[in-house]
Design goal:
signal; four-stranded mixed beta sheet; 4 helices; Spiralin; Lipoprotein_mollicutes-type_CS; rod-shaped; single chain; 3 domains; alpha/beta
């Protein structure tokens, strides 16, 4: 009987010791499982990131990937970490930054860290050089800067679809074409932060001559002898205007013609004269004419 009791007691003691050992091991495992990783242990070059873009979303993704790589934990935004103080990188010489802090209720991480963000330059394949535009010779509808810009814009958009003035390019020096032998020019430069264009181009502007069929020579007016109501310059101009408008409908003083030297008629034997010259930008008239002014007795 004593031997049986001794055997049972020994068996119970072993079982109890085993249970204690298992329990102790379980507590050790639980403690290991709940140990948080300190974000502050990420240091040195590990804090330098190269996001796929210069926006905050790309920066946050790069940070989460780095935490996983360095601390072997997969954190979730808001649940485990919160981001703040984001500053986008502006250039290769001006890096950005973002701060990551462990969420208060996170079971994975603690502490905080500040990551540096390197600038992500636009892919070279998507940026086109303005000077590669061909042809560089443009033929605007006239010699004005507005028509030159319109022609340049059409050439630029055909070369780089989606390009916009100010955002992607800006206009510079303009020089109007003066004749078929003296072309004009227009300089266009890529905007400093354009993602489509770079560099500068100087367009050559061809001279646009007025349509020959619509331009009339003043000297072809007939008759050239006028009979004003009196010898004043006002009446002489009125008579000349009537003759010019009858010859070229729609012609206007200053725009299409300008009056020059005037000499009043003195007698029936001594006629006067009035010179009229076509306006430099007229699309109706060219040359000049000298009207003869009859004396009004």
């Amino acid at each position: 009987m004593k031997k049986l009791l001794s055997l049972l007691a020994a068996t119970g003691l072993v079982a109890t010791s085993g249970s204690v050992a298992v329990a102790c091991n379980k507590k050790t495992d639980d403690k290991s499982a709940t140990t948080k990783k300190d974000l502050a242990t990420i240091t040195g070059d590990s804090l330098k990131l190269a996001p796929e873009a210069n926006d905050q979303a790309a920066a946050e993704k790069a940070v989460i990937d780095q935490i996983k790589a360095k601390l072997t934990v997969t954190v979730v935004k808001t649940t485990d970490v919160v981001f703040s103080d984001f500053k986008a990188a502006e250039s290769s010489d001006k890096a950005g930054s973002i701060v990551v802090t462990a969420a208060e209720k996170s079971t994975l991480v603690t502490g905080k860290a500040t990551f540096a963000l390197t600038f992500k330059a636009a892919e070279s394949s998507s940026v086109k050089k303005l000077d590669d535009i061909t042809p560089k010779e443009l033929a605007p509808d006239d010699q004005t800067v507005e028509k030159a810009k319109a022609a340049a814009t059409a050439a630029i958009v055909a070369y780089a679809s989606g390009a916009k003035e100010t955002t992607d390019y800006v206009f510079g020096d303009f020089k109007a074409a003066e004749s078929s032998d003296k072309a004009g020019s227009l300089v266009v430069t890529a905007a400093s932060d354009s993602k489509l264009l770079s560099g500068t181009v100087t367009f050559s502007l061809k001279f646009k001559a007025a349509e020959s069929s619509s331009v009339k020579k003043l000297d072809d007016i007939t008759p050239k002898e006028l009979a004003p109501d009196d010898q004043t310059v006002e009446k002489a101009k009125a008579a000349a205007t009537a003759a010019i408008v009858a010859y070229a409908s729609g012609a206007k003083e200053t725009t299409d013609y300008v009056f020059g030297d005037f000499k009043a008629a003195e007698s029936s034997d001594k006629a006067g004269s009035l010179v009229v010259t076509a306006g430099s930008g007229s699309k109706l008239l060219s040359g000049k004419i000298t009207f003869i002014l009859k004396f009004k007795g």
